[in-house]
Amino acid sequence: MEDAFGRRITYLRISVTDRCNLRCRYCMPEEGVRLKSHEDILRLEEIVRLVQAAVQVGIKKIRLTGGEPLIRKNLVSLVRQLSSLPGVEEICLTTNGQLLERLALPLKEAGLKRVNISLDTLQPDRYSFITRGGSIEAVWRGIRAALEADLVPVKLNVVVMRGFNEDEILDFASLTLREPLHVRFIELMPIGAADGADFGYISLQEVWERLASKFKLERVQDLPGNGPARSFRVAGGVGSLGFIGAISEHFCNRCNRLRLTADGKLRPCLYWQVEVDVKTPLRAGASIVELAGLFRQAIRLKPRGHRLEAGWSQERLMCQIGG
Ligand code: SAM
Ligand code: SF4
Fold first, then answer.
1. Which positions of the chain have pLDDT values less than 50?
2. Contact 234, 173 (CB under 8 A)
3. What pLDDT is recorded for position 230?
4. How many angstroms is it from 287 CA to the middle of ligand 1?
5. Predicted pLDDT of residue 273
6. Nearest atom of ligand 1 to the alpha carbon of 319
7. Measuring from atom 25 of ligand 1, which residue has the nearest CA?
């Protein structure tokens, strides 16, 4: 279905949990967030039913995210059920990778296509600092397992932050000379716990200039499912680079997505507080046709664009909406 601005909405990001096994400094406060009660969180069979409704309005691609999706019990079974639904063409996952080593192959066998793995630094002590205690070794074991399970292309999400990892931009680019990984540089957004943190925003323009001062960058064909990212390769590299400028670039005109929060709200835009409650009607026995009507309502509510560059912060954190 097209929204009011002629954008075809085909992509649903589902937050399967608001919980996380890490506490990244730009995403969550140390004490965590006030979690929804177990009852408030969508059950797996409810997620499946909502996706059945979503395909009725043209959703083809699903991304599972969170919080940390790999801590959700029976996630493999969810992927298996979703991948068998007619109309679902692709299921992907965004994870911090801590638990991926053991789950990569079962997820692939259940029908998962690809993974995005968050890794903001290549240095173990910095990783432990930014995630408040995560293990970079576990992430690397997860990356290897994802490559071996053919969950490709494996994309690494790197949030670039002044005062934290700006000196690693070239190291990440060098990594793509050796490894078949797609490194995606992401601008820090002024939401979640990023607001009062000690590190700051760097524009992708600056990231690009730093890269171009050292490497010859070649434009390559955009990877499948790359959404707003444009793809480049360091000459001679086996991996590639992408750039996601949520702040400096206005890719709202190409936005094709809706979000489903862990507590059952459809969110037309990540940066906008309007939500459509689907959990209450679902639990009251709404039919697939009626639920599809709620997806249509959410699509019609999509705004033309966000106003994030004006410094808009919001009531829910990224981990609660499903980043
Ligand atoms: N826990 C999983 C993970 O970390 O990959 C999935 C959820 S996490 C909210 C999804 C992505 O959002 C991660 O790549 C994370 O780095 C990114 N993210 C969180 N807060 C952000 C912020 N303030 N600005 C930019 N990206 C952010
Ligand atoms: Fe957890 Fe992901 Fe947020 Fe880090 S970015 S705290 S791993 S939800």
1. 312-313
2. yes
3. 77
4. 34
5. 80
6. 9
7. 188
Are the C-beta atoms of 61 and 11 separated by less than 8 Å?
yes
Position in ligand 1 atom list of the atom nearest CA 187: 25
Strands (E), 169-256: 182-187, 200-201, 217-219, 230-234, 240-244
Whether 17 lines ligand 1, by a CB cut-off of 6 Å, is no
Handedness of CA 122, 323, 221, 106 (dihedral sign): positive
Encode 153-188: b = buried (16+ Cβ within 10 Å), e = exposed. Answer: bbbbbbbbbeebbeebbeebbbbbeebebbbbbbbb
Q: What is the largest distance, in Å, between two alpha-carbon atoms of the chain?
A: 59
Decide: 239 in ligand 1 pocket, CB within 6 A: no
Query: How many angstroms does the Cα of residue 323 sit away from the middle of ligand 1?
Result: 5
CATH code given to domain 11-321: 3.20.20.70
Question: What is the rounded distance in angstroms from the CA atom of residue 136 to the CA atom of residue 121?
Answer: 9
Verify whether ligand 1 is closer than 6 Å to residue 160 (CB atom).
Answer: no
Q: Which atom of ligand 1 is nearest to the CA of 27?
A: 20
Question: Rounded to the nearest whole angstrom, what is the distance from the C-alpha of residue 122 to the centroid of ligand 1?
Answer: 17
pLDDT in the model for residue 124: 98
Q: Residue 173 region, left (φ>0) first, then alpha (ψ -120 to 50), else beta?
A: alpha
Amino acid in position 241: L
Residue-wise pLDDT for 108-148, tens only, equals 999 999 999 999 999 999 999 999 999 999 999 999 999 99
Closest by Cα among 102, 89, 97, 136 to 116: 97
The strand pair at 200-201 and 217-219 is best described as unpaired
Query: From CA 314, how far away is CA 253, in angstroms rounded?
Result: 22
C-alpha count within 13 angstroms, C-beta hemisphere, residue 39? 2
Please give all residues whose beta carbon lies within 6 A of any atom in ligand 2, as ranges: 20, 22-24, 27-28, 66-68, 96, 118, 319
Q: Which atom of ligand 1 is nearest to the CA of 117?
A: 5
